User: What shape does this take?
Amino acid sequence: MRRPAHKMTFDGGYKDKNTAADLSISYVGRRDDKDFSYPYPRLTLIDYFIVNIAASHKITGNVQLFGRIENLFAESYEEAFGYNTPGFSAFAGVKLEM
Assistant: This one.
């Protein structure tokens, strides 16, 4: 239960002296689950693709900008029946080194 027959992930990245970028694409196939309300019917959760990206860029020797986006295309899916996952999420920041 909750274990897909097919699950694949592709991770790729780029890096040079000041810049780094990452791409992650995941596919999770259909899987069986249960609705735990009586009479406990068995059901199938749909398959889904998730795309995540991240990047960082060093502006100076001690200042770096970074950010990432999770679920780039706001895919709607459940890892367990009745528990939705977050849609599109974005994070950004500045790293200062002393």
Summary: The mean pLDDT is 94.
